[in-house]
Amino acid sequence: MSTLLSSLGRWSFRHPWRVLVAWLIILGVAGGGALVLNQGTDNSFSIPGTESQDGLEQLSRSFPQVSGTNAQFIVVAADGDSITDDEYRDPIADAVDELSDLDGVLAVTSPYDEMIEGMINEDETAAIVQLQFDGQATDVSAETKDALTASVDTLVGELPDGSQTELGGDLFAISIPGVTLTEAVGVVIALLVLIVTFRSFVVAGLPLLTAMLGVGISMAGIFAATAFASVSSTTPLLALMLGLAVGIDYALFIMARHQDQVRDGVDPEESAARAVGTAGSAVVFAGITVLIALIGLGFAGIPFLTTMGIAASVAVAVAVAIAVTLTPAVLGFLKGRIVGRPKKVRATLRQAQGSDRPAQGSSKGPRRGFSDRWVGGVTKHPVLTSLAVVIGLGVVAVPALSLNLALPNAGVLAADDEARQSYDLVADEFGPGFNGPLVLTGTIVTSTDPLTLMEDLGDAVAEIDGVKEVALATPNETADTGIVQVIPETAPDDPATSDLVRELRSHHDEWLEEFGIDVKVTGFTAVAIDISDQLGNALLPFGVFVIGLSLILLTIVFRSLWVPITAALGYLLSIVAAFGVVGAVFEWGWFADALHVAKVGPIISFMPIILMGVLFGLAMDYQVFLVSRMREDFVHDPDGRSPDRSVRRGAALRAVRSGFTGSAKVVTAAGLIMFAVFVAFVPEGDSSLKPIALGLAAGIAIDAFLVRMTLIPALMAILGERAWEIPKWLEKILPSVDIEGEAVERERHLLSWPGDDSIVAADDLVLSADAPILEGVTLRIAPGAALIATGLDGRVRRALALAVAGRLTPDAGRLRVAGHLLPGRAPWVRNHVGCVLVDDADAALIDLREALRGAPTLVVIDGIDRFTGGQRDQATAMLQDAAAAAASRVEAGTSRPLAVFATASDPALARTILAEAAWPAAQLVDLRPFIDAPTDITEVNA
Question: Looking at the domain 51-172, which fold is it?
Answer without folding.
Answer: Alpha-Beta Plaits (3.30.70)
